[in-house]
Design brief:
With 220 residues, the chain is mostly helical. The chain is built from eleven helices and no strands. The protein has helices at residues 5-37, 45-57, 60-71, 76-85, 93-117, 121-129, 134-145, 147-163, 166-171, 182-191, 195-219. Pfam families: BPD_transp_1.
Length: 220
């Protein structure tokens, strides 16, 4: 079978782009919120935790449906975006990033929060007693001690962005060379009986994931 390698690589490059952007956004958001929530109890804490973790237990198609409504042309957000840019958020690679961020956030948040809570608070207090400011405590004490967990959280965000399917196909669709990612490409290939092409995409996503894991295991 002759394979058009340009068409084959399009979902690969798009998936990598979405995974990189997703992992960066999710990591920054999750780190900030996890640090604020770690080792703290306040009124409404459980409710906030529930909302933050809700996408973890919901089917991806449910998340996709909610995003479809929130980002659609009839919503205030979708209408504002269309007035601003002249286009829609839905069925673009940007909407795939949004879907991946929402789905990946709970996993990364839980991982990073556990990492921050695992840092010895006595060491942080000792640094403060020596005159260190909160930023210095974070930079020189908290982050170095939590680095392995932070690295694991980043990889989880990357992997979730790379492999997201259910929510993505609802808000971004499966448009070749525009919104088709590796998971959606595999689905279409299998549905069309093209097992060779499906296997090649499966191998590619396994290889990308393995490279990320080896990098983190080596440098964390």
């Amino acid at each position: 079978m002759d394979i058009n390698w340009t068409d084959f690589m399009a979902p690969v490059w798009l998936s990598i782009k979405i995974a990189v952007i997703t992992s960066l956004i999710v990591f920054i958001l999750a780190a900030a919120i996890a640090k604020a929530m770690a080792n703290r109890k306040f009124p409404g804490h459980s409710l906030i935790e529930t909302v933050l973790l809700l996408p973890l237990v919901l089917p991806p198609t449910v998340v996709g449906f909610v995003l479809l409504v929130v980002l659609g042309r009839r919503s205030w957000l979708g209408e504002w975006y269309e007035n601003l840019t002249g286009g829609t958020i839905l069925f673009t690679w940007g909407s795939a990033v949004i879907a991946s961020v929402v789905v990946a956030f709970p996993l990364v948040y839980r991982t990073l929060k556990a990492g921050f809570e695992g840092v010895d608070r006595d060491l942080e207090d000792a640094a403060r007693a020596q005159g260190a400011g909160e930023f210095q405590v974070l930079r020189y004490v908290t982050l170095p001690l939590a680095i392995r967990t932070l690295a694991a959280g980043y990889v989880l965000g990357f992997a979730r962005g790379l492999g997201e399917f259910g929510a993505t196909i609802m808000v971004a669709g499966n448009i070749p060379n525009r919104t088709q990612t590796i998971p959606t490409a595999i689905y279409v290939a299998v549905d069309g009986g093209d097992m060779t092409l499906a296997w090649l995409w499966v191998i590619s996503i396994i290889a990308i994931s393995a490279i990320m894991l080896m990098f983190v295991n080596r440098y964390s």
